[in-house]
Write a structure and sequence with these properties.
The structure holds two protein chains of two kinds. Chain A is an all-alpha fold. Chain A has eleven helices and two strands. In chain B, about 35% of the residues lie in helices and about 25% in strands. In chain B, helix 4 packs across helix 5. Classes of the chains: A mainly alpha, B alpha/beta. Chains A and B meet through helix 1 and helix 5 of A and strand 6, helix 3 and helix 4 of B.
Chain lengths: ~290, ~325
């Protein structure tokens, strides 16, 4: 058995090749890929919409009290919009939080901060690698979820023209483009919820809280948004941008909510990430 | 020996609210040394090591590791440094080898042959494809050493490496550390076990409640250590105490009987006295090594007692 180490008389410390953030990102992605939880989330995002479309399509009474609920039997493009409105209430915040709420707290849970931070990577690199991993994963989940919903709806129900929110008829091709655009509007608040979950993951150091708290906060925001008389406040809630697609389905499109939604989501993202970043940078690693 | 100290900590202080975890400690370790940081639980050893790795920021004082400082050099301060704090942690769902591969990636990567080499050094070659979740505590400790060696360190920091191990694990870990120490590495070993440090280290810093109570060579410490203490149990401990005192031995009552401290030949003679006096000997065992006795004196003394007085009091008479 032999061992190669530096002798005490070695004049200089061996210069280790410090990895770039891309290397740390690959490292995070490798860890994520090894997690059963991440694969399960992707599988649920792929399969669950198909099951929901099948069930709702089989019901004689459509959910008429929800947006586009009454049209689900008449156009395959109504179902993805109904699903988007429903998912925005808690499914998307939950999907956003499953990995993001765990990704920092997991290191606390396993006590592996000291394992990582005694290598050649800085806290900043680790922070950005984890943040990018969570965002990339959540965007992948959103894309899979949207693609599965839209494809299942089109295949099971059909590609009939869609009735707009102001009663106009939207041709099939245009309806598909608008449905895709509607799902695309969920990207910004999805990233906002990812940032919120990342912040909670850093601050709570508890994976369960990191995952559950964004969902609860999403519910609270939904409740607050239903209270009349606080319209200005409502604009700043992270759940409001999930509804910004409504303006795309009127006779004359209005983009104000879309722009406001982008700004609000960006605001939440920047504030949450900034607090999380400085918390991690300044934190004393006394436990994990 | 290089002029640059492996560790040069001066007046380091760290407080948590009212608790002063580390109080103006100075620790200097030359390259090539095998250095012990000794102290009971809560002495501040781990806090000091965490500061060394940049996991905790000191409130005041300076800390140079192989000539580099955290404020000036950032993560480069860890070049040439490796080790683990408390028990090493890994991702339980990944194999031992995969864990090492991932960690090596955070150092820029290493060839597969190097992975094989370090796994062989810690005798984990046969279990490298098993998930870490199924490893014993001792195997994880050894994987921690392997992960450290991957960095090809000049300073290896091991925090209580034998903690939690069974006797065989302790024996293997000590043998491993000794083998590493002979390869030219600077080893900084933290422990609460005087016997362990005595066996492995050349120099030692003893800490108690955040402060340094001794630093110097083991040899110098050994010279100041009190004489060997034995635990003596007889059918008449009161009479045995009188006989011990008549031979100039220091005898104090303890739960199990008497703690008798003095020269070995006087204790041998005391056994003869007891037999001659008709007192049956129920038990005679070594209570603690002289260095252990000194360690307990240093770390169990009142904070108001000056260390130099303790060391003088503990010196051979």
């Amino acid at each position: 058995m032999t061992l190669t180490t530096r002798s005490a008389s070695t004049p200089d410390v061996r210069v280790m090749r410090r990895p770039g953030t891309a290397t740390v990102l690959r490292w995070e992605l490798t860890k994520l890929a090894a997690q059963a939880r991440s694969r399960a989330v992707l599988l649920v995002a792929l399969i669950a919409p198909i099951a929901v479309v099948l069930v709702l399509n089989g019901q004689e009474q459509p959910p008429s009290d929800t947006i586009y609920g009454r049209h689900i039997h008449t156009s395959g493009y109504a179902m993805p919009l109904l699903m988007l409105a429903f998912a925005a209430q808690w499914v998307l915040p939950l999907l956003a939080a499953v990995v993001a709420g765990d990704i920092f707290a997991n290191e606390d849970q396993h006590g592996t901060w000291k394992t990582i931070l005694t290598r050649s990577v800085s806290r900043s690199q680790v922070f950005w690698a984890k943040t990018l991993t969570a965002i990339l994963f959540n965007l992948t989940v959103l894309i899979v979820f949207a693609a599965s919903t839209i494809a299942a709806s089109a295949l099971i129900i059909g590609t009939q023209p869609l009735t707009g929110l102001t009663g106009q008829l939207i041709a099939s091709g245009t309806a598909l483009r608008l449905v895709l655009a509607a799902w695309a509007t969920a990207v910004a608040p999805m990233i906002g919820f990812t940032a919120l979950a990342l912040l909670l993951s850093v601050k709570t150091r508890n994976p369960s809280l990191g995952v559950a708290a964004p969902v609860v906060l999403g519910f609270v925001m939904q409740l607050l948004s239903s209270i009349s008389g606080i319209d200005l406040f409502r604009r700043f809630l992270l759940t409001t941008p999930f509804e910004s697609w409504h303006g795309l389905f009127t006779q004359h499109h209005f983009y104000g909510p879309l722009i406001a939604g982008l700004i609000v989501s960006a605001g939440w993202t920047v504030v949450c990430l900034a607090i999380a970043y400085f918390s991690l940078r300044r934190r004393d690693i006394t436990g994990g | 020996m290089s002029e640059v100290l492996a560790v040069d900590a001066v007046d380091l202080t760290k407080t948590y609210g009212p608790l002063r975890a580390v109080d103006r400690i100075t620790v200097q370790v030359a390259q090539g040394e095998v250095y012990g940081i000794l102290g009971p639980n809560g002495a501040g050893k781990t806090t000091f090591l965490r500061m060394l790795f940049g996991l905790i920021r000191p409130d005041s004082g300076t800390l140079r590791v192989l000539g580099r400082t955290w404020p000036r050099d950032g993560i480069r301060a860890l070049q040439g440094v490796a080790g683990f704090i408390e028990s090493p942690k890994f991702y339980p769902g990944l194999t031992g080898r995969r864990n090492l591969q991932l960690l090596a990636g955070l150092d820029g990567g290493v060839p597969a042959a190097r992975l094989d080499e370090v796994l062989d050094v810690v005798d984990l070659g046969a279990r490298q494809r098993d998930k870490v979740g199924g490893y014993s505590f001792g195997m994880r400790q050894r994987l921690g050493v392997a992960a450290s060696l991957l960095r090809d360190p000049r300073l290896l920091v091991l925090d209580e490496p034998a903690n939690g191990l069974d006797p065989a694990g302790i024996r293997d870990m000590r043998a491993l550390v000794k083998r590493l120490a002979t390869s030219g590495l600077t080893v900084l070993l933290s422990s609460h076990d005087m016997g362990e440090v005595e066996q492995i280290c050349d120099d030692v810093t003893i800490m108690n409640t955040g402060s340094v109570v001794y630093h110097g060579s083991i040899t110098a410490l050994r010279e100041r250590a009190p004489q060997q203490a034995h635990e003596l149990t007889t059918t008449n401990d009161d009479r045995a105490a009188v006989l011990a005192a008549s031979r100039g031995l220091e005898a104090t009552r303890i739960d199990a009987g008497l703690a008798v401290r003095g020269a070995q030949d006087e204790i041998d003679a005391l056994v003869g006295d007891l037999v001659a006096d008709g007192i049956a000997l129920r038990g005679l065992s070594r209570r603690e090594t002289p260095l252990e006795a000194l360690f307990f004196m240093l770390t169990e003394a009142s904070p108001d007692t000056p260390t130099r007085d303790l060391l003088t009091a503990g010196a051979p008479r």
